[in-house]
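Suppose you are handed only two things: the residues of a chain and a line of SMILES describing pyridoxal-5'-phosphate. What would the bound structure be? This form records exactly that question and the answer produced for it, so the two can be stored side by side and reused later without any lookup.

QUESTION INPUTS
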Amino acid sequence: MSAIPTELETPAAPFTGTPRKVTPHQTQNEALSFEKSSPGKRAYRLAPLDVPAVRPSALLGDAARTEPAALPELSEIEIIRHFTRMSTWNYAIDLGMYPLGSCTMKYNPRVNEYVARLEGIAEAHPYQPVELSQGSLSILKDLEHCLLAITGMDAITLQPAAGAHGEFTGILLVRAYHQARGNARRTVIIPDSAHGTNPATAAVCGYEVVNLKSNPDGGVDLEALRALVDENTAAMMLTNPSTIGVFENEIAAVAEILHSKGALLYMDGANMNALVGKTRPGDFGVDVMHLNLHKTFSTPHGGGGPGSGPVACKRILEPFLPAPTVRTGADGTHTLDFNRPQSVGRVRMFYGNFGMFVRALAYILANGPDGLRQTTEDAVLNANYLRAKLEDVYELPYKTPSLHEVVFSDRRQLKHGIKTGDIAKRLIDYGFHPYTTSFPLIVPGALMIEPTESESREELDLFVDAMRQIAREAEENPALVLAAPHSTRISRLDETAAARKPVLRWKAAPAATPLTPDTPAREW
Ligand SMILES: *Cc1c(COP(=O)(O)O)cnc(C)c1O
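ANSWER OUTPUT
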């Protein structure tokens, strides 16, 4: 990698204002960012007004603007180029591997998008009467049926809009269950390897979090658990497989210890990608769990789309599920059941993120049971391939067999002053999205890598080459790694300043000419 390019002046600019400093790999066009608005430019021309002009103040009174909105003024092609250019600066699963451990950033198959765009589905409205929504309701029912078959649970709500929202809903069910039995109880036990959302969920639901230390293999220490569980324990929240990609071998014993004191077992099922088609939480003692459709079931993730975190539970928790639920009559007609006196209430408007249900169902049906099982096997194989190819250069703190993800530590690179965050930034130069850094907390300097089943052997080999090359650079040229990334538009940010003084939106310069009652109406 060559050093960061030096700055040079742009040629005399065709626009007014001071010349901008740009780096050689930027084109003249890139310098024309939207701060370079010039007065009077328009991306459109409205047809001449053919109705009497009405002043906004006549319609809006005091609420009408008194100053122009001071939006950038640009031509259509300038705007198109601006946004198209910015879209090329992003990284996406459609561009390359996204090994973000704990997040299952898998490819979103296009068949999902095709189905979600079918007219009858895309144009359905939640206020349509139930008689005209039978197709949509049967999509909900079919998805519920598939997810129950996959998890081995008895009942489900699709409402929650994210994993953390699912956790919240699930612990509300736990609370309602205990309350109905006369005592909401006080504590929720959470292992130190838990996803950060777990303790947050317990606290938001009014529970005190009791921390459980992991055993040397990263699993639950049964003796420690036995000592912690008592009549005040409402539930334990357990991520399985854990955040270090390890299956909890003693899961049935964990459930039994909890049940013996009347406590429930919540499973954070965000990592179900490692279990689908192989084993079912309902069969190993879990009482309630959430799924992440935007992880395991390939619906878009993060900025790519809204999430979905269905909550599945055992029969004992069913009365408390959010309303409405979909009921299917003997004749196959679906109705919505709002009459649920013990329900925790609605947790999301309408029925949840319907477009995600369509995509998840398309994914499940396109794969079928054997395909889903194969997906699980490929995800686990890929993680173990990376583990085998990298464990001689990166420290592997837990030697327990890995499932869908593998967690290394930066211990060997630290000798040269290189931390996990530096390796991750250097990975960007090699064309990969960074893995998850510094998580889980039980591994100091963690490199948490989840390749998912989406990646081919060829892509994994490129990733291995990059990681091995960075390990070499860490020894031979640490300064190169410490200054990475070198290939991005913006190089290393001052993370403290970014956190303390975030610039979250573009602000217009103050308006040149305030609006007056004489300003022509179309300028408002
Ligand atoms: C992603 C994740 C969550 C949270 O899911 P969101 O949809 O991001 O709210 C919870 N637990 C685990 C283990 C996860 O990986």
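WHAT STANDS OUT: DSSP finds 16 helices and 14 strands in the chain. The longest strand covers residues 233-239.
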